[in-house]
Amino acid sequence: MTTEPISLLQQTLTEFGVILFGVTAVSAGSLLYFRRVRMERPPIGTFNGRDIVILLVFISALPFLYGTLPNWLITCLLVLTFTSSLFIGYRPVLGATRAWLGIGLLIGLNFWTSRYLMGTTAGWQLWWAELSILVGLGSIAVANLYVQGGMRLQHVAWFALALAAYDIVFATILPLTDKLVAGYLAHPLDPLLGMRFGVDNYGVGLGDLLIYSMFLVAAYKAYGPQAARLAFGLIVVVGACVSAFIPFLINFLDTELDLLVPSQAFFGPAAFLCYLWLKRRYGRERTMAEYRAGAGITPRSTATTQPAPAPEPASV
Amino acid sequence: MFETGVRQFRMAMGMVWGRRLDARNIGRLVDDVLATLAEFGEPGTGADEQQLLGGPLAEPAAQREFAVRGLRHTARRLAVRSPFYARRFAAADVQPGRLDMAGLGAIPVTTKQDLIERPGDFLCTDAAVYLTTRTTGTTGRPAEVWLSRYEMELWPALGALGSVLRQDLGPGDIMQVNVSSRATAANHLAAASCRLAKSGCRLLGMVSPDDALDSLAEGGATVLFTYPSYLAELVIAARRRGMSPADFKLRRVTLGGEVLSPSLAQAARQMLGVTQVEDSYSMTEVIPVTGRTCSQSHLHIDLSTGHTELLDLQTGEPAAPGALGTVVITPYFPYRDCMPVFRYDTRDIARRLPDEALACEVSGIPAMSQILGKAGSLLHLGPADVITPRQLIDAIEALPTAPWPARYRATAHGGRIQLTLPAAAITGYGEAAARAHFAESGLDVDLAIVSDDLAASLRHTRSDLREITFATPHALVEA
Model ipTM? Predict the structure, then answer.
């Protein structure tokens, strides 16, 4: 069987479909989890701005680290990361025993498919499907770990803005991300959610999914369903649509479609502006305690109230 | 969140290595707890104060191991740095590094007399003195204890961390402190703990109860820290003034230093409108080790900062279940630094609880009965018949006349109690009814009634440490 190359528009539409499915499923799953499951958190501590800086420093170091480490060591680190995040996220839902069994099954199956099923399109598709479940579940768990741990929409917005700069730097000035993605593809626990159609792989990165999920959940926690709807719209339009169609647009200019799209370069500024607008409209974010107590959200009044006149002194 | 983890790790490492703790690091942990409470409304999973402060787990074996480690560590330092204990350990042929529970008894207990006679010998050579605090002297000649700057920074940090974790103190609270102004450590700790907990602090001293009530009512205090006898005077003054719970914003009253009777606690709850009247245990000589009373009236003394023993009054061996004993406390290094004591005999009497599993809310911490009084105030009616001050105070303060704080003198004559009371204690009630009341409490008493003028001389209480203020005549202001 021969595989015919498909048109650029078809590829773009397929990529859009994959991203749309991924971000919708994972973001909605994160919100559902947030509403239904209460995670355990440490006795003391809540997210603050310095934690975001620490995360950024860590993330910035990753490309260099991954570029230096052998693949087997990267795999070990990914096993540790996935195992811990899945266990933290799904123990409250499944209990410890079933969570361990599920994690073992998912990771074991991923190793097996990575090793034995990569010769055919169907094999690739099975690998992608299984990996996507793993990555999706991991994203849902980590997004909730952070937001339920006290990460506010303000933090997510700044984080997304910083990641925009990161994406631009590591996609253009220091194009390490592209090389890492290409170099690690088809290895176990590749942090991508995607699918293969024909000879092409279409996917969205774990980091992108995480940002979208955190943004949606934090917006919901901070300002309620209206804000969540707005956030979700932004994720679909900028996170999925713009990200998918940018290569198509760029291709008209340089005829090169095979590039890694720095999605956060587009989503980060949009998310930050969205946060500023929400803050201006609704004011202070709800805390987790207020969210759980069901505190309502009321838009700030635009009408100014004249202060009551102070009584004049009787005598001086 | 990541920073908090690092701070907890630093604190834990300090405890494991037995080095002086960084008070500023603990102060920042207090900020972390406040931020956690502001975000979530409550601490997260496993916010057990004992464990967060590095204390042992609930298993007796782990507690024992923790205690042995703390005692050895403390003894090793004292053997080198404290002239008093260097001599004492040498005389007892004790090797601090090999000290265990069985060998602990070989070290004689330290008495208040030791502290009074040779205070300089207790000063550690590697600590610089900063502030002294004195016992109030209600039970004899006062002892003076020197404290270092390190201690005065560490204790409020630890205290504030525990208080904010339990949500006893926090932003928006105002703590009113009515303890003797000479209790410098208590006052300093209260103020510094409030600063760290972002609460207000009003150090009033032992002013007239009316002044204190005005401050409580108009000043918006939410937490009151005082002695039971002074609380008694506040309740009486509030009753006289026709005040009600609506006049107060209090949410908690913390007491210590004296026996608190159930009658007075109940009256305070009703008058001040508080649900929590905490009967805490602390003592100048053994700071920072403290204890708290649970809902089942057990006294649970903190395990993380010191080791507590309950020793039989006659044999000096650990008291048997059900027997009375004197509370002997060893504060651990690095919690006590400047003028530490080892096996300090407080002469506070408590009863050992039966060897059964505790079922109270703090069952993870070993307990004894509440403090029943000082050893020197026990009444021996017979070889096995001992009356404790708490029995007498509870019974007297339960009289319908509400004679608070209890003023009495008790002696034993021919197996009976000779109880002297001021006339006001039974006014309108009668001697016969009073005797019947005491009999119901298991006290067979002969009553002697004296004039109310002599009341204060019958039994001193801390509320007698009254501090005067200049009154401001209204006429002068108006002029």
Answer: 0.75
